[in-house]
């Protein structure tokens, strides 16, 4: 399958430095011991208290990805998967093992990202309790092969449109951790149902700016780990099944990558700048994805320095009319 060319110009935002860190899954769970009320199952789900940093971060990311509808969306509850049941522990361990295996195959980076999945309350119940068990045509948008469809972290609107109201007028979506590995572009209308070669691990609608992830059936219960359930109300009736990308506007300061590189060269030692320049070059040569480039940049420069530099720069430069803002993955523009 073809790969989409990397854009010539790259930018990143502050929001993508403020994501929920994947390693937090192994930390202690929410201090609240309250069992699920909206999902009253004995399946290891616990409620995340409002005002909790974790709750606020997820809510902010979800509402931002809802675009113009975000201001009229009410997040009623957020529940966390504690993976405390026998099945939950097994799935958590399976995800860990496969992430290591894919990482080893991909040069040390399994390319794990957060993604949204929307469905009915009953389907989410089945997935949390038993895992993914069937493949269906996407409930919103075009067909990109046959697999489990998830929405990029910045486009929660897409999964919201795939959700269904329950008897209380609530909709429910899952925030999942997903092993993407090496991604291949799957064209609209494709009948593909597995990777085109052993080189690839997942499919995307656009490898340069993924909005939709496709996890093939063979990997759906090893490469997807449901982490949270968000219950909400939103005025989705009459909303187009596919919101244009530019309806979700940036909410945080951004900075052109070349400008960022110039500023960092004044404060970072030469050997670190050499590393960053190499990864930037690898991105333009399509050797690594945008997410991998930003991940490397964060590892080398550190979030604190990057945040300070971007915020300081944006206080001096008026933001553009349009740019892409992300909360859990890289931001690149041409």
TrEMBL record:
The residues forming a coiled coil are none
Domain named PARP catalytic is located at 30-255
SUPFAM superfamilies (alphabetical): ADP-ribosylation
Where in or outside the cell is it found?
Nucleus
Q: Which InterPro entries match?
A: Poly(ADP-ribose)pol_cat_dom, RCD1/SRO1-5, RST
* Highest taxon, organism lineage: Eukaryota
Q: Name one GO molecular function term.
A: NAD+ poly-ADP-ribosyltransferase activity
Q: Mind giving the lineage of the organism this protein is from?
A: Eukaryota, Viridiplantae, Streptophyta, Embryophyta, Tracheophyta
| PROSITE patterns per record | PARP_CATALYTIC (PS51059), RST (PS51879)
| Protein name, as recorded | Poly [ADP-ribose] polymerase
- Give any Pfam family that matches: PARP
Q: Which residues form the signal peptide?
A: none
- Identify one Gene Ontology CC term for this UniProt entry: nucleus
Residue ranges of domain RST in the record: 248-319
Keywords (A to Z) from UniProt? Developmental protein, Nucleus, Stress response
């Amino acid at each position: 399958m073809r790969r989409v060319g990397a854009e010539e110009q790259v930018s990143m935002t502050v929001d993508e430095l403020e994501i929920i860190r994947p390693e937090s899954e192994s930390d202690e769970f929410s201090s609240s011991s309250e069992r699920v009320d909206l999902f009253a199952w004995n399946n290891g789900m616990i409620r995340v208290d409002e005002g909790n940093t974790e709750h606020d971060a997820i809510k902010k990311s979800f509402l931002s990805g809802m675009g113009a509808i975000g201001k009229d969306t009410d997040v009623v509850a957020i529940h966390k998967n504690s993976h405390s049941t026998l099945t939950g522990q097994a799935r958590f361990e399976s995800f860990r093992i496969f992430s290591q295996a894919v990482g080893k195959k991909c040069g040390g980076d399994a390319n794990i990202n957060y993604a949204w999945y929307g469905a009915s309350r009953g389907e989410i119940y089945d997935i949390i309790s038993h895992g993914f068990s069937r493949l269906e045509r996407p409930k919103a948008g075009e067909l990109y092969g046959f697999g489990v469809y998830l929405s990029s972290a910045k486009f929660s609107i897409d999964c919201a449109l795939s959700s269904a109201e329950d008897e209380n007028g609530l909709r429910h979506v899952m925030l999942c951790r997903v092993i993407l590995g090496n991604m291949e572009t799957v064209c609209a209308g494709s009948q593909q149902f597995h990777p085109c070669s052993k080189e690839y691990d997942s499919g995307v609608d656009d490898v340069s700016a993924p909005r939709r992830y496709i996890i093939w059936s063979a990997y759906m219960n090893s490469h997807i780990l449901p982490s949270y359930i968000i219950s909400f109300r939103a005025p989705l009736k009459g909303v187009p099944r596919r919101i244009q990308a530019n309806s979700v506007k940036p909410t945080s300061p951004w900075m052109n990558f070349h400008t960022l590189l110039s500023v960092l060269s004044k404060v970072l030692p030469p050997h670190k700048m050499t590393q960053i320049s190499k990864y930037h070059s690898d991105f333009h040569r399509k050797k690594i994805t945008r997410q991998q480039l930003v991940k490397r940049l964060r590892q080398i420069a550190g979030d604190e320095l990057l945040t300070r530099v971007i915020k300081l720069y944006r206080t001096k430069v008026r933001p553009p009319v349009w740019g892409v803002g992300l909360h859990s993955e890289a931001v690149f523009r041409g």
